[in-house]
Amino acid sequence: MSTQPTHAIPSYLDQKDPGPWGIYLQQVDRVAPYLGRLGKWLETLKRPKRILVVDIPVELDNGTITHFEGYRVQHNISRGPGKGGVRFHQDVTLSEVMALSAWMSVKNAAVNLPFGGAKGGVRIDPRNYSMPELERITRRYTSEIGVIIGPHKDIPAPDVNTNAQTMAWMMDTYSMNEGATATGVVTGKPVSLGGSLGRVEATGRGVFVVGSEAANDLGIPLKGARVSVQGFGNVGGTAARLFYEQGAKVIAVQDHTGCVHNSNGLNVLALLNHVEQTGGVAGAADSDTLTPAEFWALETEILIPAALEGQITKHNANSIKTRILVEGANGPTTPEADDILNSKGTHIVPDVVANAGGVTVSYFEWVQDFSSFYWTEAEINHRLEAMMRTAYTAISAVAKEHKVTMRTAAFIVACSRILEAREVRGLYP
Ligand SMILES: NC(=O)C1=CN([C@@H]2O[C@H](COP(=O)(O)OP(=O)(O)OC[C@H]3O[C@@H](n4cnc5c(N)ncnc54)[C@H](OP(=O)(O)O)[C@@H]3O)[C@@H](O)[C@H]2O)C=CC1
Ligand SMILES: O=C(O)CCC(=O)C(=O)O
């Protein structure tokens, strides 16, 4: 007998979602058999706590008024305030933001940060707008979501196409509306505004740390290891540089301008300069070009997707020849592709562990803001590396104990922590 009430018109949550939210739901279902008595709370994870869709009216430089659609979703706040980035992208959808917020709940719990999960987004291609227009859009978006964010409620941070400047505008807008400076309302701020040293590089550094742990587990020396990277922004660019500096051969990099390749290894520092000057990897010196299909089929020791969700699917998973997949991006691998890669023995370090370095240093930033006492970059990096290694080792151990993948192990650890908090808090106000 069903324990849920039935209705003639299904709720939007009951629709079959083929997008990122549907992928997240499949991942949650895979963890159900391992939750024991906590299984009775599983439905909690399939329902975001709070969804806010906002209209953002803005006057453009040419005097016209235009409207953007923005979102902030708080998936779960059982273990602490919501935490997660804000994305500006033309393809942002509610399904995507719901999934990204849920992956934040899982990530924060997997690494044992005292946060729930949240995420935000604005449907906009920021390349089409001037800086003053982006400032007005960001400020209006912040005012609109101001009813649910706050240093103890939900703390945004940078994600795709947002950065420290975006966070400065958000912090200033929220503070003006509150009538008091609230540094702790966002993380990833400029250091001059209470931001943390090391935050800009933190996600890529975390990818490097767990990628190195995985290589060590498989007996692969970093020196000479072939690495390919999709996405050469904050996460992919930093991870590529750190592997390069340790002697790995970064043989291919792809962004939306194309894919550059050199089987002897690209000069990553020169490539970063080239991207700074031209806006993309296309046309970089000492490289040939590859099609996307050729990029995925390259033989590598380490492959790092660090762009958007849904890049590795049943259509390209069979061609992938890498020993280790380190998910810098959120949700880059669909469940079918996950199964194909696992059956080939690919060692997958899932997003909820691999890219947790950013939110870990965001946590350090939040703590520093509250205590008004700031750590050195060396201290930050040391603590970050320790937390990433601990999380990787603990989740590997659970994977071995239950004979499951690292992704399912991370979900077992995280979902158990979230649902235990749910259970012990109880349901009624
Ligand atoms: N920033 C952070 O702290 C964190 C980010 N992440 C995740 O990491 C991923 C990347 O984020 P981040 O580096 O911050 O974002 P950025 O905006 O800095 O960089 C995104 C990169 O991805 C490239 N890209 C976008 N679409 C495509 C595509 N279809 N094919 C190939 N390349 C593409 C972009 O290329 P181009 O510039 O040419 O458009 C750019 O190089 C996202 O999934 C994000 O959610 C996860 C944890 C924390
Ligand atoms: O730093 C943060 O708070 C969140 C970063 C983020 O959005 C992510 O990990 O996907």
Automatic annotation (TrEMBL):
<dbReference type="InterPro" id="IPR006096">
    <property type="entry name" value="Glu/Leu/Phe/Val/Trp_DH_C"/>
</dbReference>
<feature type="binding site">
    <location>
        <position position="234"/>
    </location>
    <ligand>
        <name>NAD(+)</name>
    </ligand>
</feature>
<feature type="binding site">
    <location>
        <position position="107"/>
    </location>
    <ligand>
        <name>substrate</name>
    </ligand>
</feature>
<feature type="domain" description="Glutamate/phenylalanine/leucine/valine/L-tryptophan dehydrogenase C-terminal">
    <location>
        <begin position="196"/>
        <end position="426"/>
    </location>
</feature>
<keyword id="KW-0520">NAD</keyword>
<dbReference type="GO" id="GO:0006538">
    <property type="term" value="P:L-glutamate catabolic process"/>
</dbReference>
<keyword id="KW-0560">Oxidoreductase</keyword>
<dbReference type="InterPro" id="IPR014362">
    <property type="entry name" value="Glu_DH"/>
</dbReference>
<dbReference type="GO" id="GO:0000166">
    <property type="term" value="F:nucleotide binding"/>
</dbReference>
<dbReference type="Pfam" id="PF02812">
    <property type="entry name" value="ELFV_dehydrog_N"/>
</dbReference>
<dbReference type="InterPro" id="IPR006097">
    <property type="entry name" value="Glu/Leu/Phe/Val/Trp_DH_dimer"/>
</dbReference>
<dbReference type="InterPro" id="IPR006095">
    <property type="entry name" value="Glu/Leu/Phe/Val/Trp_DH"/>
</dbReference>
<feature type="site" description="Important for catalysis">
    <location>
        <position position="159"/>
    </location>
</feature>
<dbReference type="Pfam" id="PF00208">
    <property type="entry name" value="ELFV_dehydrog"/>
</dbReference>
<feature type="binding site">
    <location>
        <position position="83"/>
    </location>
    <ligand>
        <name>substrate</name>
    </ligand>
</feature>
<dbReference type="InterPro" id="IPR036291">
    <property type="entry name" value="NAD(P)-bd_dom_sf"/>
</dbReference>
<feature type="binding site">
    <location>
        <position position="362"/>
    </location>
    <ligand>
        <name>substrate</name>
    </ligand>
</feature>
<feature type="binding site">
    <location>
        <position position="203"/>
    </location>
    <ligand>
        <name>NAD(+)</name>
    </ligand>
</feature>
<dbReference type="GO" id="GO:0004352">
    <property type="term" value="F:glutamate dehydrogenase (NAD+) activity"/>
</dbReference>
<dbReference type="InterPro" id="IPR033922">
    <property type="entry name" value="NAD_bind_Glu_DH"/>
</dbReference>
<dbReference type="InterPro" id="IPR046346">
    <property type="entry name" value="Aminoacid_DH-like_N_sf"/>
</dbReference>
<protein>
    <recommendedName>
        <fullName>Glutamate dehydrogenase</fullName>
    </recommendedName>
</protein>
<keyword id="KW-0547">Nucleotide-binding</keyword>
<comment type="similarity">
    <text>Belongs to the Glu/Leu/Phe/Val dehydrogenases family.</text>
</comment>
<dbReference type="InterPro" id="IPR033524">
    <property type="entry name" value="Glu/Leu/Phe/Val_DH_AS"/>
</dbReference>
<feature type="active site" description="Proton donor">
    <location>
        <position position="119"/>
    </location>
</feature>
